Amino acid sequence: MTSPFLFLSFFAFVLLGACSSSIAEPPVLPVAQEGWDVSREAPVLPAGDMRARALWNDPHVVQAKGTYAMFMTTSVDKPFQPPILPFRALSKDGVHWELSPKAPLLTAKGGPYVSIETPSVVYFRGAWHMFFTGIYPRPVPSPMSIGHAVSQDGVHWDVVAWERLKATGVATDWDSYLVGEPGAVVVQGQLYVYYTAMGGRPEGGPPLQSLAVITSSDGLSFSKPRLVLQQGDLYPARAGYAGYSSPAALYAQGKVHLFYSVVHWQKGGNPEWQQVAIHHAVSADGLGGFVEDGAPIVTRDSTQWATGEVLAPGPMIKDGKVMVWFGGHVPVSDLRPLINRDFKGPEFGIGLAVMPYDQFISK
């Protein structure tokens, strides 16, 4: 459940015809930026906290009536198995959390999915909007699509479009195989929904994973998809990098700040598809021209508890600070202590990275 892609690695790799003749080695990651205060020893929200056997992931944080409201996911019946559903927790400091309500915000009943993952929530035109990844029971022709729900209070939700955005199914398209992991933000009165898309890579190597956006002026009708960012020179395909995933955005001082996970394919890995770093880029209009930082914010080398994967950034600007919550866990081979504790402990959860806003904006 560390991401919907965990279950897809071998299937997608073969289906896209992207197998390389060589086996990719574990990546030598770039050194992370200095200046971030990172929860290095343990997550701020570990597995089993607030709910028995909860595997918290996919954080997205907003401000609601002076408090932090985190939307996140966990499996609800058996760990790592569908259904995976969204929850909400509240906090006064961004570190200590309490479920509110105790039950999932949405279920997959009545729709085409077995799970609802990666909730991204934004207030727009007098209502709360949630965009989510819906996971199909069978990954053919595509394993997932993006859905859309609305709410007046952030607790009671109505799905207005189970399949707001789907993959094209056209082999040559950059979004042919899947779309998912939406990240919503309001930009000058417009609703922007960023997301990840996967397609084939004509030159071979790992499948190509890009970031794109759809926009809306009313929250009901949306523009055609627009490609906004593909992998840069810091993460080359020849080193096994597939591109970018799980985007989230902030709008500040007239610019769009995009945060996202860096994806690596390691043939024979467990799993083969892994998210290994969190990066940041900035654009004047959010529709293109993104300039990437020269180094990642966090990598899986940055902590003691997320040495397997770091993923799904959830950024916020508050009280003169940039705060980025993120999911993570130890390698799959090191999850045994967590399992022995009945899925409770620091090996899986949600962490936090913080930097003063003035320092962030000037780097």
Poorly predicted ranges: 4-24
The N- to C-terminal Cα distance equals: 34 Å
By CATH, the architecture is named: 5 Propeller
- Using the CA coordinates, give the radius of gyration: 18 Å
DSSP, total strands: 22
Order of helices and strands: HEEEEEEEEEEEEEEEEEEEEEHEH
Largest sheet: 5 strands, antiparallel
Q: What is the multimeric organization of the chains shown?
A: single chain
Please tell me the total number of domains: 1
Share in β-strands: over 45%
Identify the CATH homologous superfamily.
Glycosyl hydrolase domain, family 43
Set down the secondary structure blueprint.
Layout: H1 9-15, E1 37-38, E2 45-47, E3 57-64, E4 67-75, E5 84-91, E6 98-99, E7 115-124, E8 127-135, E9 144-151, E10 158-165, E11 178-187, E12 190-199, E13 208-216, E14 226-229, E15 241-252, E16 255-265, E17 273-283, E18 291-292, E19 298-299, E20 309-318, E21 321-329, H2 336-340, E22 345-356, H3 357-362
Antiparallel strand pairs: 1-22, 2-22, 3-4, 4-5, 5-6, 7-8, 8-9, 9-10, 11-12, 12-13, 13-14, 15-16, 16-17, 17-18, 17-19, 20-21, 21-22
Q: In brief, what are we looking at here?
A:
By secondary structure, the protein is mostly beta strands.
